[in-house]
Design brief:
There is one protein chain. By secondary structure, this protein is of the alpha+beta class. The chain has a single domain, classed as Nuclear Transport Factor 2, Chain: A, CATH 3.10.450.710. The protein contains 8 helices and 5 strands; from the N terminus they run ααααααβββββαα. It has a 5-stranded antiparallel sheet with strand order 1-2-3-4-5. α6 runs parallel beside α8. The longest helix has 23 residues. It is globular.
Length: about 200
């Protein structure tokens, strides 16, 4: 009986602490894991394993489906369920591969968390900056929404430029000047170029 009470208490404490995690804590936890992976000497010898580890870490906080939906903008609602699924998968692969490549060039840059603020109960922004060894700085802001007591990223703003808005502009241009099918082909082609090592 005592063991059962202890188990319930321990589980309750864990659930409360998980529910109380701040947006910054969720972002920092993922970023710390990413830094650990790129700094791991053993993983540097195994590019495939390192890339897989990076993708896994990044996917714990990035909501690719939400990002895909926002990036497709007004063209999302007219897509079929199968098209939405295919597009979300293509978009996730694009982000994973292109950002894994950028992250792999990490060279002991310092990440400073400036502040966070909640826009409402469901949305928050974590403002940070990256400081290079040459003391150059650039801002990196994470826009998050709450999903089952966990904060998930739906956009990243780098030096004032929204990742989602940037993609939405590109995607809209391709669909408007050509077709949705052309966009899908372009994404498939880009993903083939960025394939993991």
């Amino acid at each position: 009986m005592l063991k059962r009470i202890l188990l319930v208490l321990t589980t309750s404490v864990f659930m409360i602490s998980a529910a109380w995690a701040s947006p910054t804590e969720d972002v920092k936890k993922t970023v710390d894991e990413v830094v650990r992976i790129v700094s791991d000497k053993d993983l540097k010898k195994n590019e495939t394993k390192r890339r897989q580890s990076l993708k896994k870490a990044i996917s714990t906080i990035f909501d690719y489906s939400e990002m895909a939906k926002r990036s497709l903008g007004k063209h999302w609602n007219v897509r079929s369920a199968a098209e939405k699924k295919q597009f979300s998968e293509l978009f996730a692969t694009l982000l994973e591969n292109s950002y894994a490549q950028k992250i792999e060039s990490y060279n002991n840059e310092k990440i400073v968390y400036i502040k966070e603020y909640q826009e409402d109960n469901e949305h928050a922004v974590v403002k940070s900056k990256v400081v290079t060894a040459a003391r150059d700085e650039f801002t990196l802001d994470y826009h998050l929404f709450k999903d089952n007591n966990r904060w998930m990223v739906y956009d990243v703003v780098i030096e004032g430029v929204s990742l989602v808005s940037n993609y939405r502009s590109q995607f809209n241009k391709t669909i408007t000047s050509s077709s949705y099918e052309k966009l899908v082909k372009k994404l498939q082609s880009k993903n083939d170029e960025l394939k993991a090592p």
